[in-house]
Amino acid sequence: MGSTRDARRAGIAAASSVVDGIRTGIRQKVSRRVQAALYTALMTSTREQSMWRRFLSGVAVAVAITAAAFVVRGAQGQEPQPLSASDIADGMRLYQQKGNCQACHGWAGDGRKTDSQMPDGANLRDTKLNRSGLVMTIKCGRLNSQMPAFDKFAYTDGRCYGKTQADLKSYATRMPDPPATLQQREIDLIADFLIAKIVGKGPMDRAKCVEFWGSETDACKEFPK
């Protein structure tokens, strides 16, 4: 009887062990499946997020390019802003006083210099230079001529025609020093004044003289009515 009971107990224990093993195996399989499912979901979400990031980045770039294109088109389509009377007046003062441009070019810019001791200046009323050309010429002068450079640092770093002071020595005509140096804003104002009042205006006459000065002045008396 004792041996029979022992055999039954051993059988029950063995069966329990088998059941536990089956349960453990099921849990491990389920766990692996759950882990695989979670990994797949995570990778899918990561890929989708990466795709969305790339998509949104592309959209942002496209929007930026489109906006820039509209800005450029708008700027190109805008009419040039008219010069203010105060800017023209400031440019005229700089032309006549600080820059003393009239000493060589004349008060009317027609080359009739006001100082006989100064070099002959070009007739600016029929010059072919546009605004940028005028700015460059005032800033850097003219090589191999007596037109001075009004930029304080004009031949120190290659900003003017890519040349330095050493290069100027190779020219037959020495560029003189200016009566005063000018800031970039002052150079721009003189160029704006020239465009508004002198360049392309043709020979000076009485009507143009009155318009130039804003009233009938002594300078206009030399022109017939």
Would you mind describing this structure in some detail?
The protein has 225 residues and is mainly alpha-helical. The chain folds into 2 domains: 1-78; 85-222, Orthogonal Bundle (Cytochrome Bc1 Complex, Chain D, domain 2), CATH 1.10.760.10. It is built from 7 helices and no strands. It has helices at residues 2-77, 85-96, 102-105, 131-140, 165-168, 184-197, 206-213. α2 (85-96) packs across α6 (184-197). The longest helix has 76 residues, at 2-77. Residues 74-78 have low confidence and may be disordered.
Number of structurally distinct domains: 2
Rg calc: 43 Å
Strand share of the residues?
Answer: under 5%
User: What is the CATH first-level class name of the largest domain?
Assistant: Mainly Alpha
Please trace the helix and strand order, writing H or E for each element. HHHHHHH
Largest sheet: none
Termini separation comes to 153 Å
Task: Look at the helices and sheets and give the structural class.
Answer: mainly alpha
Number of helices: 7
Apparent shape = elongated
Helix content: 55-70%
